[in-house]
User: Fold this.
Amino acid sequence: MAKPNKNPRPIVSGSLSDASAQVVLDGLDSGFTIDDIAPSKGPKLRGETQFSQEGLDELVSLSDKGVPIPGQSLMNSPEEPYSWEQPPEFTNPREALDYVVALMFEPEAMKNIVIGLSKGAAVIDIGVAILYSQFTTGKINPDVLIMLVEPVAYLIMAIGEEANIKYNIEGNDLDEFDDEEYDEEEEDLKDEFKNSLSGIKEKTLSKGIDISNINSGVVPESILAKVEEKSPEIKSILSKGEM
Amino acid sequence: MGLFSKLKKAFKKIGKAVKKVVKKVVGGVKKVVKKISSSKILKALAIAAAVIVTGGAALTAFGGTMGTGALGNFGTWMMSTSQNVLGGTLFSGSGTLAKVGNFATKTIAKPFGAVGGALGSTARVGANLFTPGKSAFAPGTAVGAPAPFSSAALSGQLDYSQVVPDPVTGGYINNNTGLPLTQEQIAQLPKSFTTPTTELNDYQKNNPSSLTGNRWGDYVISGAGNVVGGVATGYLMNELTAGDPRGDDAPLMVEGAEPLGALQVYASNNNFDLNDIYGQLTYGTADPGYIASSELYRQDTIGVPS
Assistant:
């Protein structure tokens, strides 16, 4: 375990992503390793999305039940408005966030979130479902709902990490970050190769090697003959070509 | 277009937007810190974000990765921002930060505190609990477990509406089943349920109009000389006058001049009054919500004169 070499920097940001990135960078800068911040817990449980015919049938049967007739809401009595038609309980996003977080930290709810993640439900979908239920029960208004999607999503991700689940963030993107890693690794290797080539070139130039001084016997005659044989076929990409 | 159609459209967009932001931030961190896998960065970000949002309560609540690993080191280090803010700089002439309507004081301070150790294991075990044919958001079957997202769930781990004291044994009985509660279940009952109502102290008896229930608290609120009527005083008054259902003294948190600097800069850059900070959803280690939510800083930093 690393011992921090300085105190944390006070950070304020309007975005949770930005704030947490700054905190992580500050932590790494203070002497922590990434394993101190995010200790590995072994292989993760894959939260794969699985096709379920039953689920699809249920969805279809729900949509078969019909939608409200245009203007139907106007037929409701103004004396009995829906919960979302009344002033919300929380107008301050901070208070609303505290309330929602408290609900999510309730053990039974957390267990269900973990089950959802492990069965392939996406972080955003679970977060939106939680917040939408708060909107329909008149706890928050749509604006606060949108504002809370980011922090709620991060909390669900943290729950997923704690439960050691490889989760989907949006849709079916389980391995997206891993794929990126492979791409990045490949890019890194390419960069390394290019750097080593340019390094050789630089070293050669710094030694002041003149091409005219190179011994003609360095390249074997047989190879030179092959090059001469193939040279008419080798064309510059800028050459005019045949008419 | 109706409200619900608009919301549906917004959900589609916001999901993509949040993911884009997450990817961008992971990429940003990766550019600075080389040779760390994206999934590791994502994990670190999620942990840091959870600590920021809950003011450190996630550290105690999770008990696993964060509890054993990060709490002892990175978590404690993160929390030390609040310590710097609150420690040793009391009444240095900057202002009062006494946010009481936050996650920790409203939730963790209540019987919900029992969540602590149990929660991490629940979450970990939960990964293996595949219950076929059960909705992800269905209420649990555990004895006394409240329905998720219900008011009972918010007020404590156990739904105590069906729990009655047992005058014979001194314990408690589940009124539904007639069975006595185990010690473990009793420990999960709300404190307000298991302990008799707190009697008024001498100061409260002599000063029935007292807002805080102690001389020091009243002094801080009314003493305009020491408390610059700035950040959150109005908010504090609202919260205090609304009354605390459990009769606890509201924790009072005061911050010094230095840490307010970050807030002042942020407020100035974003063109709003610092006094309106509670109306703004900000995040970070210098954010008032984070500071005040921190469980560590709910301890008495001000000696309360009797």
In short: The beta strands of chain B are 95-96, 163-165, 172-174, 254-255. Residues 141-189 of chain B form one domain. Chain B has a mean pLDDT of 58.
